[in-house]
Amino acid sequence: MPKASRRDFIAYFSKWPNLAPLVGCAYSWFALDFAFYGLGLNPSIIFHAIGFGNSKAEDLNQRAFDNMYNTAVGNIILSIAGLIPGYWFAFAFIDSWGRKPIQFMGFGVLTAIFIVMGFGYTKITSVNQGSFAFLYALANFFQNFGPNSTTFLLPGELFPTRYRGTAHGISAASGKLGAVLAQVLLLYAKDIGGPNKSVDHILEVLALFMMTGIFSTCLIPETKGRSLESLSGEVEDQDNFGINDQPPPKSIREQFLSLFRRRQPREPSSDGWEGLGSTGIHL
């Protein structure tokens, strides 16, 4: 097995079949974080755009308090309605459905949602602001039941042991780059033409980024049901004796649910030494 080195790193990732998953993971994380942190850290952009959180108090201190209070309440509502259920759905289906299908689905649905929110922004917010808030909560749901759950999981499974941490770090750094760019660009872009006058165009740009995430996902292989050794091509008979003869591991969901199942009491042994078997002592 080659040792980790700069020369081996370049030799390994100079081959397209090895580089493609890294490009797919890094760009998918970049595209997701551009949208997730662009809006996730600035939800007041959406709240103020639909009129939620705009205090009409005359006192400046009271107005500032009302705006912060309404933003906090809006964040709690979004978390309960979208973010938390999205993570639970991802937790429930990621081992049965697979990582790649969930990421495909998430990017696809987010593309559609942001297209509707962007191009229909003026009409939706003028007719029914509640519908716009629902679409935003739905976008939060499919961010977590989608690429926000898979982009940090896939890089930890795809690459050889000697470069797994490095590849995961490159992917994560790419995501944080997208988050930083989103904060810098969207903060100023939203006010082009006046306060919050360009929110619709921002949503259209986010739809474009989500669409590119669909294509970058094509570069990533599925990892469901495969061992880390087989994914990295490191399977060797002498190091993995009997690996194909072992029963398939329980999914994360099955392991979690097993914690709440009532265990059957053990019958005492005939010689009266009950309980010693669980300690690993065999008489």
Write the topology of this structure:
Elements: H1 6-13, H2 16-40, H3 43-49, H4 60-93, H5 99-119, H6 121-127, H7 129-144, H8 147-150, H9 155-158, H10 161-189, H11 199-217, H12 228-232, H13 252-258
Could you characterize the architecture of this molecule?
This protein has 283 residues and is mainly alpha-helical. The protein is built from 13 helices and no strands. Helix 2 (16-40) runs antiparallel to helix 11 and helix 4 packs across helix 7 (129-144). The longest helix is centred in the first third of the chain and has 34 residues, at 60-93. It starts with 5 loop residues before the first helix and ends in a 25-residue tail after the last helix. Mean pLDDT is 79; it is low at 236-249 and 271-283.
